[in-house]
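Re: export button greyed out
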Amino acid sequence: MGVPELPEVQRVVETLLPRVVGRRVQCLEIHRADYLKPRGIDWRRQFQGRSIRSVSRRAKRIVFRLDNDLGFFIHLGMTGRVSVVHVAAPLPPHTHLQIVFEADEALTVVDPRRFGNVTWLGEAAGDGAMGPEPLTLRPATLAARLAGTSRAVKVALLDQRLIAGLGNIYVDESLHRAGIHPLCRCRDLDPEAVRRLNRAIKTTLRRAIRAGGSTLRDYVDANGDRGSFQMLHRVYGREGKPCTACGTGITRWVIGGRSTHFCGICQPAAPGE
DNA sequence: AGGTTGACCTGGACGC
DNA sequence: TGCGTCCAGGTCAACC
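Workaround output, generated via the alternate export path:
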Protein backbone atom coordinates (compact mmCIF):
# COMPACT_ATOMS: atom_id res chain seq x y z
CA MET A 1 0.00 0.00 0.00
CA GLY A 2 1.27 3.42 -0.85
CA VAL A 3 -1.89 5.46 -0.73
CA PRO A 4 -0.69 8.70 -2.25
CA GLU A 5 -2.80 11.51 -0.83
CA LEU A 6 -2.05 15.21 -0.95
CA PRO A 7 1.22 15.16 1.04
CA GLU A 8 2.65 12.23 -0.93
CA VAL A 9 1.70 13.78 -4.26
CA GLN A 10 3.24 17.07 -3.13
CA ARG A 11 6.51 15.29 -2.42
CA VAL A 12 6.40 13.49 -5.74
CA VAL A 13 5.93 16.82 -7.53
CA GLU A 14 8.79 18.45 -5.61
CA THR A 15 11.19 15.61 -6.36
CA LEU A 16 10.05 15.15 -9.95
CA LEU A 17 10.20 18.80 -10.90
CA PRO A 18 14.00 19.25 -11.15
CA ARG A 19 14.30 16.06 -13.15
CA VAL A 20 11.79 16.79 -15.90
CA VAL A 21 11.09 20.51 -16.27
CA GLY A 22 12.63 21.94 -19.43
CA ARG A 23 13.42 18.56 -20.91
CA ARG A 24 12.59 17.72 -24.50
CA VAL A 25 10.52 14.62 -25.20
CA GLN A 26 12.15 12.14 -27.53
CA CYS A 27 9.35 9.60 -27.72
CA LEU A 28 6.67 7.80 -25.73
CA GLU A 29 6.76 4.13 -24.80
CA ILE A 30 3.15 3.12 -24.21
CA HIS A 31 3.08 -0.25 -22.53
CA ARG A 32 -0.56 -0.29 -21.59
CA ALA A 33 -2.76 1.93 -23.71
CA ASP A 34 -5.84 1.57 -21.50
CA TYR A 35 -4.01 3.35 -18.67
CA LEU A 36 -4.19 6.51 -20.81
CA LYS A 37 -7.42 8.48 -20.91
CA PRO A 38 -9.60 9.48 -22.59
CA ARG A 39 -9.62 7.00 -25.43
CA GLY A 40 -8.83 8.27 -28.86
CA ILE A 41 -6.03 10.71 -28.02
CA ASP A 42 -3.00 10.46 -30.28
CA TRP A 43 -0.47 10.69 -27.46
CA ARG A 44 2.64 10.35 -29.61
CA ARG A 45 1.57 13.17 -31.88
CA GLN A 46 0.75 15.44 -28.91
CA PHE A 47 4.28 14.97 -27.54
CA GLN A 48 6.07 15.25 -30.91
CA GLY A 49 8.86 17.81 -30.54
CA ARG A 50 7.52 19.12 -27.24
CA SER A 51 9.22 19.73 -23.93
CA ILE A 52 7.93 19.89 -20.35
CA ARG A 53 7.23 23.44 -19.22
CA SER A 54 5.91 22.81 -15.72
CA VAL A 55 4.91 20.24 -13.12
CA SER A 56 2.49 21.10 -10.35
CA ARG A 57 0.02 19.53 -7.96
CA ARG A 58 -3.76 19.88 -7.98
CA ALA A 59 -5.32 17.79 -5.20
CA LYS A 60 -3.92 14.28 -5.79
CA ARG A 61 -3.02 14.94 -9.40
CA ILE A 62 0.43 15.58 -10.85
CA VAL A 63 -0.28 18.15 -13.56
CA PHE A 64 2.14 18.64 -16.47
CA ARG A 65 2.14 21.47 -19.02
CA LEU A 66 4.01 21.17 -22.28
CA ASP A 67 5.75 24.10 -23.97
CA ASN A 68 2.62 24.68 -26.07
CA ASP A 69 0.56 24.98 -22.86
CA LEU A 70 -1.33 21.77 -23.50
CA GLY A 71 -1.38 19.54 -20.46
CA PHE A 72 -2.02 16.16 -18.92
CA PHE A 73 -2.04 14.73 -15.42
CA ILE A 74 -0.99 11.57 -13.64
CA HIS A 75 -3.24 10.23 -10.89
CA LEU A 76 -1.37 7.63 -8.84
CA GLY A 77 -4.46 5.86 -7.55
CA MET A 78 -3.35 3.64 -4.71
CA THR A 79 -0.18 2.00 -5.92
CA GLY A 80 1.12 4.36 -8.59
CA ARG A 81 4.76 5.43 -8.66
CA VAL A 82 6.80 7.66 -10.89
CA SER A 83 10.55 7.73 -11.34
CA VAL A 84 13.10 8.96 -13.84
CA VAL A 85 15.36 6.14 -15.00
CA HIS A 86 17.75 5.35 -17.82
CA VAL A 87 15.96 3.65 -20.69
CA ALA A 88 18.47 0.80 -20.60
CA ALA A 89 17.47 -0.06 -17.01
CA PRO A 90 15.34 -3.18 -16.69
CA LEU A 91 11.68 -2.31 -17.06
CA PRO A 92 9.92 -2.63 -13.70
CA PRO A 93 6.83 -4.85 -13.67
CA HIS A 94 3.55 -2.98 -14.22
CA THR A 95 5.16 -0.15 -16.16
CA HIS A 96 2.38 1.43 -18.20
CA LEU A 97 4.01 4.50 -19.70
CA GLN A 98 7.47 5.94 -20.27
CA ILE A 99 8.05 9.47 -21.46
CA VAL A 100 11.54 9.31 -22.91
CA PHE A 101 13.63 12.47 -22.80
CA GLU A 102 16.92 13.33 -24.46
CA ALA A 103 19.93 11.70 -22.79
CA ASP A 104 17.92 8.44 -22.74
CA GLU A 105 16.20 9.08 -19.44
CA ALA A 106 12.53 8.30 -19.06
CA LEU A 107 9.77 9.39 -16.75
CA THR A 108 8.38 5.98 -15.84
CA VAL A 109 4.87 5.33 -14.54
CA VAL A 110 4.37 2.08 -12.62
CA ASP A 111 1.05 1.06 -11.05
CA PRO A 112 0.39 -2.59 -10.14
CA ARG A 113 -3.27 -2.19 -9.28
CA ARG A 114 -4.00 0.26 -12.05
CA PHE A 115 -6.37 2.39 -9.98
CA GLY A 116 -4.44 5.35 -11.31
CA ASN A 117 -4.43 6.82 -14.80
CA VAL A 118 -2.76 9.31 -17.09
CA THR A 119 -5.27 11.79 -18.47
CA TRP A 120 -4.90 14.19 -21.36
CA LEU A 121 -6.16 17.68 -20.48
CA GLY A 122 -5.30 19.68 -23.58
CA GLU A 123 -5.97 23.33 -22.82
CA ALA A 124 -8.35 22.57 -19.96
CA ALA A 125 -7.53 22.88 -16.26
CA GLY A 126 -9.76 19.88 -15.76
CA ASP A 127 -10.62 20.61 -12.16
CA GLY A 128 -14.08 22.05 -12.59
CA ALA A 129 -15.84 19.51 -10.42
CA MET A 130 -13.12 19.47 -7.76
CA GLY A 131 -13.37 21.23 -4.45
CA PRO A 132 -10.83 23.75 -3.16
CA GLU A 133 -7.29 22.97 -2.03
CA PRO A 134 -7.19 22.23 1.73
CA LEU A 135 -3.92 24.08 2.35
CA THR A 136 -5.35 27.44 1.29
CA LEU A 137 -8.90 26.85 2.42
CA ARG A 138 -10.50 29.63 4.45
CA PRO A 139 -12.69 28.72 7.43
CA ALA A 140 -15.69 30.55 5.98
CA THR A 141 -15.38 28.56 2.75
CA LEU A 142 -15.16 25.27 4.62
CA ALA A 143 -18.12 26.25 6.79
CA ALA A 144 -20.23 27.09 3.76
CA ARG A 145 -19.42 23.82 2.06
CA LEU A 146 -20.09 21.73 5.17
CA ALA A 147 -23.38 23.54 5.79
CA GLY A 148 -24.65 22.21 2.49
CA THR A 149 -24.64 18.56 3.53
CA SER A 150 -25.87 16.40 6.37
CA ARG A 151 -23.45 13.57 5.65
CA ALA A 152 -21.04 12.27 8.27
CA VAL A 153 -17.98 14.53 8.30
CA LYS A 154 -15.73 11.53 7.67
CA VAL A 155 -17.59 10.74 4.44
CA ALA A 156 -17.82 14.36 3.28
CA LEU A 157 -14.10 15.05 3.73
CA LEU A 158 -13.30 12.12 1.44
CA ASP A 159 -15.55 13.58 -1.26
CA GLN A 160 -13.16 15.33 -3.67
CA ARG A 161 -15.96 17.63 -4.83
CA LEU A 162 -16.20 19.12 -1.33
CA ILE A 163 -12.46 19.42 -0.63
CA ALA A 164 -9.87 17.96 -2.97
CA GLY A 165 -6.76 16.15 -1.80
CA LEU A 166 -7.61 14.33 1.43
CA GLY A 167 -7.75 10.55 1.61
CA ASN A 168 -8.53 8.06 4.32
CA ILE A 169 -5.36 8.54 6.38
CA TYR A 170 -5.39 12.33 6.58
CA VAL A 171 -9.13 12.58 7.18
CA ASP A 172 -8.79 10.36 10.25
CA GLU A 173 -5.70 12.22 11.45
CA SER A 174 -7.32 15.63 10.93
CA LEU A 175 -10.53 14.69 12.74
CA HIS A 176 -8.56 13.47 15.72
CA ARG A 177 -6.50 16.67 15.83
CA ALA A 178 -9.72 18.68 15.65
CA GLY A 179 -11.43 16.57 18.32
CA ILE A 180 -14.38 15.80 16.07
CA HIS A 181 -16.17 12.45 15.95
CA PRO A 182 -16.15 11.00 12.40
CA LEU A 183 -19.92 10.47 12.48
CA CYS A 184 -20.72 14.11 13.27
CA ARG A 185 -23.12 15.45 10.68
CA CYS A 186 -21.51 18.26 8.70
CA ARG A 187 -24.25 20.81 9.12
CA ASP A 188 -24.32 20.24 12.88
CA LEU A 189 -20.71 21.44 13.29
CA ASP A 190 -20.62 24.81 15.01
CA PRO A 191 -18.32 27.60 13.73
CA GLU A 192 -15.73 26.89 16.39
CA ALA A 193 -15.56 23.21 15.39
CA VAL A 194 -15.21 24.17 11.73
CA ARG A 195 -12.33 26.50 12.61
CA ARG A 196 -10.62 23.72 14.54
CA LEU A 197 -11.16 21.36 11.64
CA ASN A 198 -9.76 23.82 9.13
CA ARG A 199 -6.65 24.35 11.24
CA ALA A 200 -6.29 20.63 11.96
CA ILE A 201 -6.38 19.74 8.27
CA LYS A 202 -3.68 22.28 7.46
CA THR A 203 -1.45 21.36 10.37
CA THR A 204 -1.75 17.66 9.61
CA LEU A 205 -0.99 18.10 5.92
CA ARG A 206 1.94 20.48 6.50
CA ARG A 207 3.54 18.15 9.01
CA ALA A 208 3.00 15.18 6.72
CA ILE A 209 4.64 17.00 3.82
CA ARG A 210 7.57 17.94 6.03
CA ALA A 211 7.94 14.28 7.05
CA GLY A 212 7.93 13.19 3.42
CA GLY A 213 4.44 11.68 3.55
CA SER A 214 3.34 8.35 4.99
CA THR A 215 4.91 5.12 3.79
CA LEU A 216 2.75 2.22 4.98
CA ARG A 217 4.17 -0.26 2.56
CA ASP A 218 5.63 1.02 -0.64
CA TYR A 219 5.04 4.70 -1.24
CA VAL A 220 8.20 6.47 -2.38
CA ASP A 221 8.76 9.89 -3.96
CA ALA A 222 10.32 10.41 -7.39
CA ASN A 223 13.78 9.95 -5.85
CA GLY A 224 12.78 6.62 -4.36
CA ASP A 225 12.77 7.98 -0.80
CA ARG A 226 10.22 6.80 1.74
CA GLY A 227 8.15 9.03 4.00
CA SER A 228 8.13 8.90 7.79
CA PHE A 229 4.84 10.50 8.79
CA GLN A 230 3.42 7.05 9.61
CA MET A 231 5.56 7.30 12.78
CA LEU A 232 3.52 10.33 13.76
CA HIS A 233 0.07 8.90 13.08
CA ARG A 234 -2.21 9.42 16.06
CA VAL A 235 -5.08 7.17 15.03
CA TYR A 236 -4.65 5.70 11.54
CA GLY A 237 -3.56 2.08 11.76
CA ARG A 238 -3.48 2.24 15.57
CA GLU A 239 -6.59 0.28 16.53
CA GLY A 240 -6.44 -0.72 20.20
CA LYS A 241 -3.27 1.25 20.83
CA PRO A 242 -3.33 4.13 23.32
CA CYS A 243 -4.46 7.55 22.18
CA THR A 244 -1.43 9.86 22.19
CA ALA A 245 -3.49 12.48 24.01
CA CYS A 246 -5.46 10.53 26.63
CA GLY A 247 -4.27 6.92 26.57
CA THR A 248 -7.64 5.43 25.65
CA GLY A 249 -7.57 2.59 23.12
CA ILE A 250 -8.14 3.76 19.55
CA THR A 251 -11.41 2.57 18.02
CA ARG A 252 -11.77 1.31 14.46
CA TRP A 253 -15.15 1.40 12.74
CA VAL A 254 -16.18 1.10 9.12
CA ILE A 255 -17.86 4.32 8.05
CA GLY A 256 -18.97 4.91 4.49
CA GLY A 257 -17.27 1.65 3.60
CA ARG A 258 -13.96 3.02 4.85
CA SER A 259 -11.82 1.93 7.75
CA THR A 260 -12.09 4.76 10.28
CA HIS A 261 -9.88 5.30 13.33
CA PHE A 262 -10.70 7.62 16.23
CA CYS A 263 -10.48 8.15 19.97
CA GLY A 264 -13.84 7.82 21.68
CA ILE A 265 -12.76 10.23 24.43
CA CYS A 266 -10.97 12.97 22.48
CA GLN A 267 -13.55 12.83 19.70
CA PRO A 268 -16.89 12.75 21.54
CA ALA A 269 -19.98 11.67 19.67
CA ALA A 270 -22.38 14.41 18.71
CA PRO A 271 -25.72 14.46 20.52
CA GLY A 272 -27.92 11.81 18.99
CA GLU A 273 -25.11 9.53 17.85
C1' DA B 1 -29.99 13.71 -1.59
C1' DG B 2 -27.86 10.48 1.03
C1' DG B 3 -26.91 5.60 2.04
C1' DT B 4 -24.92 1.51 0.74
C1' DT B 5 -22.74 -1.78 -2.03
C1' DG B 6 -19.89 -3.60 -5.55
C1' DA B 7 -16.54 -3.26 -9.21
C1' DC B 8 -12.06 -2.33 -10.60
C1' DC B 9 -6.95 -4.53 -9.52
C1' DT B 10 -2.77 -6.81 -7.26
C1' DG B 11 0.14 -8.20 -3.56
C1' DG B 12 0.76 -9.10 1.04
C1' DA B 13 -0.93 -11.14 5.33
C1' DC B 14 -3.04 -14.78 7.45
C1' DG B 15 -5.31 -19.34 8.42
C1' DC B 16 -5.35 -24.12 7.85
C1' DT C 1 5.15 -25.42 1.29
C1' DG C 2 1.03 -24.11 -0.65
C1' DC C 3 -3.33 -22.97 -1.31
C1' DG C 4 -7.56 -20.22 -0.48
C1' DT C 5 -9.41 -16.13 1.54
C1' DC C 6 -9.44 -11.58 3.09
C1' DC C 7 -8.09 -6.90 3.07
C1' DA C 8 -6.12 -2.39 1.72
C1' DG C 9 -8.43 2.16 -0.14
C1' DG C 10 -9.24 6.08 -4.82
C1' DT C 11 -12.97 6.53 -7.71
C1' DC C 12 -17.03 5.58 -10.22
C1' DA C 13 -21.43 3.45 -11.08
C1' DA C 14 -25.62 1.32 -9.67
C1' DC C 15 -29.49 1.06 -6.86
C1' DC C 16 -32.58 1.86 -2.92
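The helical segments of chain A are 6-20, 43-47, 139-147, 153-158, 168-178, 191-210. The button fix ships in the next patch.
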